[in-house]
Amino acid sequence: xxxxxxxxxxKMNGSRGLVENLVGYVRSELPSLDNxxxxxxxxxxxxxxxxxxxxxxxxxxxxxxxxxxDSGAYTGEVSAAMARDCGCRYALVGHSERRQxxxxxxxxxxxxxxxxxxxxxxxxxxxxxxxxxxEAGQAEEVVATQVRKGLGNVSGSEWQKIVxxxxxxxxxxxxxxxxxxxxxxxxQSIRSVLSDMGAPAEAISLxxxxxxxxxxxxxxxxxxxxxxxxxxxASLVATDxxxxxxxxxxxPER
Length: 254
Ligand code: PGA
Prior knowledge:
Layout: E1 4-9, H1 16-29, E2 37-42, H2 48-55, E3 59-63, H3 80-85, E4 90-93, H4 96-101, H5 106-119, E5 122-127, H6 131-135, H7 139-150, E6 162-166, H8 180-196, E7 206-209, H9 217-221, E8 228-231, H10 238-246
Helix pairs in contact: 1-2, 1-10, 7-8
Bound molecules: 2-phosphoglycolic acid.
């Protein structure tokens, strides 16, 4: 049984005006969906308070990054404990932009996952290969290594607080999406890696990300191992984000 999740990663975009318009719209439209989707909004950290106060119980809130340390002299950082304190149910870890621009290695990802688990915040751990790695036939191996190392410290009931997002780097913000069958194949491979690691793989939600739009979401979400999406650009347009939430097949959890 897996949760169906559509999470909007705003990255470094947005304003208080967008929070008001978009969260207000999603809050009013979400109750009309009967497909059991969980909508998550992941704004820049400064707006988390604004989003939580408007979101209501139906919309979950997440943070885009947390520190690998508990607390202390780390100017500019935000801790997992603060994320929980401010009402975040989710946090992204290891987004490819963090890996590429902020030197977030698999070891750092693992430390951040540990921080989040200690606070009971769900870690959405992002993995994905570059175009060069895909063209060299290494995509599955690269992603498997990211999963094994990033989640290497997780055990027992902690797996309930783990979501994995497969985001091929070449598909992020480029308008290129993996075909639904390529995405499904990678999700299946991630699930078997998780199973090898002793995780309850059938119970872990796997999201696809990378140029998910209103017009390609339904085909992706129809795949048996794609349990939702991590949405960048399209999550900044209220109607597009809602259409993607709507594209989730009806029915109970998977
Ligand atoms: P995109 O971003 O939907 O704009 O491609 C996805 C992401 O980076 O999470």
